[in-house]
Design goal:
This protein has about 350 residues and is of the alpha/beta class. About 40% of the residues lie in helices and about 15% in strands. The protein has one domain (about 1-345): Divalent-metal-dependent TIM barrel enzymes (TIM Barrel). The chain starts with a strand and ends with a helix.
């Protein structure tokens, strides 16, 4: 297992010099953030990121993410242009030592929460999703936490209208088209593609979601069999879907060699619908058996990249919700312990 930490480049409020002090930390998960979606990244931008990581003895083997342009998801006329740029980016990141690319194929929104500062009983706050609050949102006048500055109202309504003509099967076929172009390049340069689960794993605002369940993954792997075509096993995203057996999925896909990246975070179900809030990483804090997930990974040969996913805001830490230093560092130490125990038990 290689323990990593999400880092948003030089503008991140958490410096690399802090991240390297977390026990067991081997590297960071980052990306180029100042290039429009769909355009090619420059060698100079990647080399600068790599140099900054090298200065702090941090690896840079995972990119999260190279965003997929909406024209690719929609199957529009310019998709081949954007796919070609994607392939250029795959080759570019491989040149600086990247081994894994985490990406998603979610239309318009690559995550959704209804509260960025849900108050917890211990005085911390965290991200949460409430079905009741979601149902109050007017799709024709969307104002969502974290997304109000991502699109103009006109852009958002235009995208939503375009997706009204796209079925689940259409979106899946567009994913397969994309992968059949990209995976041969990955095989050529030694990159693993790790698709992230839908977050949360169900349709939102009429937008189709196609990476929400075990059956969805099986369908994708059957369509594009290369083991370079793998998954980012996000415990919190898959786990928000209460019918998903995350322990089973972890073991099954690790055994297939398809778990290239793991996001470990816990969620707590807060009512009898599909509402949840994000909590501390421990099994005892939420509704997921984190120790069971790690054991399933280890028992089935997983040796890839892991990062502590969203943390709470604790000890009056501000900054980007879910991406503070303190709780994710605590989560990293917990993850270290889970893997150490699971590996020792397996070795007996």
């Amino acid at each position: 297992m290689k323990l990593t930490f999400r880092w948003y480049g030089e503008k991140d409020s958490i410096p690399l010099s802090y991240i390297r002090q977390i026990p067991g930390m081997t590297g960071v998960v980052t990306a180029v953030y100042d290039v429009p979606v769909g355009e090619a990244w420059s060698d100079s931008s990647l080399n600068k990121l790599k140099s900054l990581c090298d200065e702090q003895c941090m690896g840079m083997e995972v990119i999260e993410s190279i965003p997929v342009h909406e024209d690719i998801k929609l199957g529009r006329g310019k998709r081949d242009y954007y796919i070609e740029n994607y392939c250029k980016n795959i080759r570019a990141v491989a040149k600086v030592g990247v081994k894994c690319v985490c990406y998603n194929f979610m239309p318009v929104f690559d995550w959704l929460r209804t509260d960025m500062h849900h108050p917890n009983a211990d005085g911390s706050d965290s991200l949460s999703y409430s079905r009741a609050d979601y149902e109050k949102v007017d799709p024709n006048n969307l104002h969502l936490p974290g997304w109000d500055e991502s699109y103009t109202p006109e852009e958002l309504q235009s995208l939503l209208a375009a997706y009204r003509e796209v079925s689940h099967e259409d979106l899946f076929e567009n994913l397969v088209y994309f992968l059949k172009k990209v995976i041969p390049v990955c095989e050529e340069v030694g990159i693993n593609m790790a698709i992230h689960a839908d977050d949360p794993p169900w349709d939102i605002f009429g937008l189709p979601r196609i990476v929400s369940t075990e059956a969805d993954l099986d369908k994708m792997f059957e369509a594009v069999p290369s083991v370079r075509n793998g998954v980012t096993l996000c415990a919190g995203s898959f786990g928000a879907g209460r019918s998903n057996d995350v322990i089973k999925m972890a073991g099954k896909y690790a055994k297939q060699g398809r778990v290239h990246f793991v996001h470990l975070r816990n969620v707590k179900y807060t009512d009898d619908t599909d509402s949840f809030c994000e909590v501390g990483h421990r099994s005892a804090d939420g509704s997921l058996d984190m120790a069971g997930i790690v054991k399933a990974l280890v028992d089935n040969g997983f040796d890839g990249y892991v990062r502590p996913d969203h943390g709470r805001n604790i000890w009056n830490e501000g900054g980007k919700p879910g991406y503070g230093l303190f709780d994710r560092a605590l989560g990293a130490t917990y993850i270290n312990g889970l893997f150490e125990m699971a590996e020792k038990v397996k070795a007996k």
